[in-house]
Specification:
InterPro entries: DHS-like_NAD/FAD-binding_dom, ETF_a/b_N, ETF_a/FixB, ETF_alpha_N, ETF_asu_C, Rossmann-like_a/b/a_fold. Belongs to the ETF alpha-subunit/FixB family. The chain has nine helices and 17 strands. By secondary structure, it is of the alpha/beta class. The chain folds into two domains: about 180 residues, HUPs (Rossmann fold), CATH 3.40.50.620; about 120 residues, TPP-binding domain (Rossmann fold). Strands 7-11-6-1-4-5-12 form a seven-stranded parallel beta sheet, sandwiched between helices. A five-stranded parallel beta sheet has the order 14-13-15-16-17. A three-stranded antiparallel beta sheet has the order 8-9-10, with no helix packed on it. Helix 3 crosses helix 4 and helix 5 runs parallel beside helix 9. The relative contact order is 0.12. The chain binds flavin-adenine dinucleotide. The site of flavin-adenine dinucleotide (FAD) has 26 residues, from helix 6, helix 7, strand 16 and helix 9.
Length: about 325
């Protein structure tokens, strides 16, 4: 079994992102030592109860003036200082934009190997942690080992079930003694993307539209299905490039990488660059009028038909099932 694991927690506006609870649950199932959660920001201490409930034995809060706004180099130095105090064998980061930015900097500072964007972390026969991660735009999954004494993994959201452990986390005081005025880059403003919908990388169900929807006003057909399912909306790249939807909807190699339970690909052909962003989905449902569209090779379920007939009928059927439930 792995010894202690440090889970680096991302908060947004005082809210712990769900992926942090997933990582804590996973860490608790793998660690033989203590699981420690590290969290930053003014509201850090409000998170103690929930971090404990989902698997943290200990929490480190960095809530001083240096941690009010995200700084890549500053937060990396802070994580490195916490590592030297609590000495974990492994670190888990979320494979979100935030974690993808921070994890490699920490790896560089503490001289640890990093496996990024993992879909699985497990204990190997030698007792160390190993991981599985997609390569070549999701065409293959590689089993990777990290040889450095300390190991770092960033993990995709939605790959692990959240488990309530009912723990009560103990607070560990660590003061990295950093001064924000020495940080090289600090985030000064965060602009929310339009829509206020569920963040795509954390969504459980996604309804995504491609060029097959033909015009921006037709996106409302997909909104109806998304509303019926309680799903987030996404798109292929050309649809975002055309300005039919905001760029925050763009999924794929050059967009967001998602891992929902169900991904509806509507009027999307299934180009390799799009598949790169959706290969972590548990189920892919394709709706396309062309029976030879490549998306059907990646899909678990497929409907060959005109989306303008299929999608409203599906939304209506789902509403009826929900009404009777
Ligand atoms: C370097 C690079 C990076 C890229 N990165 C990305 C990326 O991150 N994400 C991404 O998505 N793409 C990316 N692309 C573009 C990618 O190659 C494809 O061009 C794009 O994914 C196609 O988008 P689409 O499936 O919406 O459109 P199309 O390929 O035009 O497919 C439209 C589909 O809709 C179907 N259709 C049409 N009418 C109907 C109807 N009435 N009912 C049902 N189905 C219908 C058609 O049969 C067709 O399969 C990238 C390309 C390059 C070169």
């Amino acid at each position: 079994m792995a010894q202690g694991i440090l889970v680096v927690v991302n908060q947004e506006e005082g809210r712990v992102r769900r992926v942090a609870y997933e990582l804590l649950s996973l860490a608790q199932s793998l660690a033989s030592g203590q699981v420690t959660a590290l969290t930053f920001g003014p509201d850090a201490e409000n998170t103690r109860e929930s971090l404990g409930r989902y698997g943290a034995d200990r929490v480190v809060f960095l809530s001083g003036p240096a941690y009010q706004a995200y700084s890549s180099d500053g937060f990396a130095q802070a994580v490195a200082a916490v590592v030297s105090t609590i000495d974990p064998q492994a670190l888990f980061f979320p494979a979100t934009a935030w974690g993808r930015d921070l994890a490699p900097r920490v790896a560089g500072l503490i001289g640890a190997g990093l496996a990024s964007d993992c879909t699985e972390v497990h204990v190997r026969d030698d007792g160390r942690l190993g991981a599985v991660r997609p390569m070549y735009a999701g065409k293959v999954y590689a089993r990777v080992a990290i040889d450095s004494p300390r190991q770092i993994f960033s993990l995709r959201p939605n790959i692990q079930t959240v488990v309530e452990t009912g723990r009560s986390a103990e607070v560990v005081a660590v003061d990295p003694g950093l001064d924000a005025s020495t940080f090289q880059a600090v985030v000064t403003e965060v602009k929310q993307s339009q829509g206020g919908q569920v963040e795509l990388t954390e969504a459980d169900i996604i309804v995504s539209g491609g060029r097959g929807i033909k015009a921006p006003e037709n996106f409302k057909v997909l909104e109806e299905l998304a509303d019926a399912l309680g799903a987030a909306l996404g798109s292929s790249r050309p649809v975002a490039d055309e300005g039919w939807v905001p760029h925050s909807y763009h999924i794929g190699q050059t967009g967001k990488v998602v891992s929902p339970t169900v991904y509806f690909a509507v009027g999307i052909s299934g180009a390799i660059q799009h598949l790169a962003g959706i290969s972590g989905s548990k189920y892919i449902v394709a709706i396309n009028s062309d029976p030879d569209a490549p998306i059907f090779k990646a899909a678990n379920y497929g409907i060959v038909g005109d989306l303008f007939q299929v999608v409203p009928a599906l939304a209506q059927a789902i509403r009826e099932v929900k009404k009777d439930a």
